[in-house]
Amino acid sequence: MRLPAFLRLSxxxxxxxxxxxxxxxxxxxxxxxxxFSLYLAFQSWEPTGGxxxxxxxxxxxxxxxxxxxxxxxxxxxTLWLAVASGVPQHLVEIPLAAFIHTSFKxxxxxxxxxxxxxxxxxxxxxxxxxxSLFSTDYGMINAALGALFGMAHVDWLTSAxxxxxxxxxxVFWRYVGFNTVLYLAAMQTIPGDLYEAATLDGAGRxxxxxxxxxxxxxxxxxxxxxxxxxxxxxxxxxxFILTGGKGxxxxxxxxxxxxxxxxxxxxxxxxxxxxxxxxxxxxxxxLTWITHLALRVRKGAA
Amino acid sequence: xxxxxxxxxxxxRGKAGARAARWIAYAxxxxxxxxxxxxxxxxxxxxxxxxxxxFNLPPPLWFGSDLAANFKLLTERIPFWRNLGWSVYVALMxxxxxxxxxxxxxxxxxxxEFRFKKALFGLVMATMLLPQFxxxxxxxxxxxxxxxxxxxxxxxVPGAASAFGIxxxxxxxxxxxxxxxxxxxxxxxxxxxxxxxxxxxxxMKPALGTLALVAFIASWNNFINPLIVMRSLPNYTLPLALxxxxxxxxxxxxxxxxxxxxxxxxxxxxFAIASRQxxxxxxxxxxx
Lengths: 302, 288
Fold this sequence. Notes:
Shape of chain A: globular
CATH topology of the largest domain in chain B: MetI-like fold
Strand content of chain A: under 5%
Largest interface: A-B, 99 and 101 residues
CATH superfamily of chain A: MetI-like
Number of strands of chain A: 2
Radius of gyration of chain B: 24 Å
Number of domains of chain B: 2
CATH architecture of the largest domain in chain B: Orthogonal Bundle
Number of helices of chain A: 14
Radius of gyration of chain A: 25 Å
CATH class of the largest domain in chain B: Mainly Alpha
Oligomer: heterodimer
Helix content of chain B: over 70%
Distance between the termini of chain B: 26 Å
CATH architecture of chain A: Orthogonal Bundle
CATH topology of chain A: MetI-like fold
Distance between the termini of chain A: 59 Å
Shape of chain B: globular
Low-confidence stretches of chain B: 1-12
CATH class of chain A: Mainly Alpha
Strand order of the largest sheet of chain A: 1-2
Low-confidence stretches of chain A: none
Mean pLDDT of chain A: 86
Number of helices of chain B: 15
C-alpha cells in the first residue's frame, strides 16, 4: 500500500508527528493546568460561582496557609509518615535482598513475586483489607497480638496516637518487595569474584555482607531511602481511604495531600488549595535538591 | 528477614552453626512471605463469610458458606457489572493509547534526529518528577472546562503519553532497533509511518508487552483520577465503587471483601503469568 505523495510523511517532519501526541497531551493536561493553578494560587475562587467569581487576592492564600494550624499539622503528619514509613523498611529490605541474592536459586523468582504482590494490588483493596485487619475489637491483628503476647486490644484506626504507625506499617508492607527488587538489581552488579576471593581468604557470610555487599550498594541505599521519603511526602491514597477521606481522629492521619484535596473539594477553596500545593511542591523540591547535592558530595568524596 | 544478623555468631561456631543460621534465615524469609500473603488470605476468606461471622472473636480463618450471598449483596449495593465493565474498558483504552503514543515518541527520541530533541526529552523526564498532588486541582479544572467531568475519557486520555512509557520505549528502541535497518528501508522508499508500523513496532514487541502490563495495572488500580473527575456511581470504575460501599455506616464487610477480591483477581492472574517481566517493567524507572 503506497499513500499518495501529499499524505506521505516527509522524514523532516516525521519525528515531530511521532512526538505530537506527547506534546499535545502534555500541553493540554500538564502545562496549561499547572500554569492555571499558579494563577489560581493568587485568586479567591469557588468553582460554584463560575469563572467570573474569581478575584485577585495577592499573597493572601499563601499567608492564610502559613497561618493555618491544619496546614502545619498536615505537614508534620506527612514528614512523620514519610520518615517512619520510608526509612526503617530499608533495614529489612537490605538483608532480605542480600539473603535472596546469595541463598535462593530455584525459588528466587517465586519468593520475589510473593514479596512484590502487594505493590501491584489496588490501594483501595489494600485499605479495605487493613481496615478490617486493624479493627479494634474483631481485627485479626489485635487477635494475633493478644494470642501471642497477651497484649490488650489497641485502637489502631480510631485513636490519634496509633493511626500513624498503622498507616506506616501498611506502606511498609506495600513497598518491601519493590525496594528489595531495587537492592537485588544493585547486588547483581557486584562482581562474583569479589565474594570468591573473600571466601578463599576465609571471610564468612556476615563479613562478606559487611565489607563487600554494603559498600557496593551504598549509592543504591541512598537513592532508595530518598525515593521512599520523597514518595512518602506525597502519601495520599492509604490515609485517604482508611480515614474515609477525612484524615482520621483529630486529623492525625491527614497528610498534606489529603488536606489539599479537602481544602479544594470539601471546603471549595480552590485558590487556597492551589497555594498550598505550590508550598508543598517547594518543600518536596527543596528536599529533593538537598539529597541531590548530598549525593553529589558523596560521589565526589568517594 | 534479618538473615545477616542471624549469621553473625555462626561464623564463630563453624559449619554446623552456619548451616543452622541459614535455616533460621530461610524460616524468617518464609514467615515474611506468609506475612505478605496473609492479608490476601483474609480478604478471600472474609469474602465467604457474613458480616456477623466476620465480627467474631477469633475472626474466621477458613472459608465460610456466604460467598453467593455476599456477591448478591454487592450487586444490590453497587451496579457491580457496570463498574467492572468501566474498569475493563478504561484499562483497555488506556493500554492501547499508551502503547501507540509511547512507542511513537520513544522511537522518535531513540532513532531520529530533530531540533530540540534533547530539550524535549528533558521535558519528558522532568514530568516524571512532578508530584502527583500538583495535578489534583488542575486536573479537575481542565476536565471541568473540557466538559469531561464524569466521562471515562477523562481517565484514559491524559496519561496516555506517559513519561515513564516514553522512557521505557526509548531505552528499548535504542538497543533493539538497528539504525541501519531503518535507513535502508528509507532508502528503498518506505514511508516514515510504514517504517514505524512494519519495522520498528514488530522489533519492540517485548517492551510493548511490558508496557502493556504496566499501563493496564496502573489504570486498573487508579483511584485518584476517578476520585477527582467521576461523579455518579454508575459511571465509577471498580475501586471507586468499592470505596463508596465503605463510606456507609453499616459497612457490609463480606460484600466489600468479595468485591475487593474480584478486583484483585485479574492482577494476580497477570502477575502469575508474567511476574518477571512485570517486576522488571515496574522497577525500570528506578533501577536505571
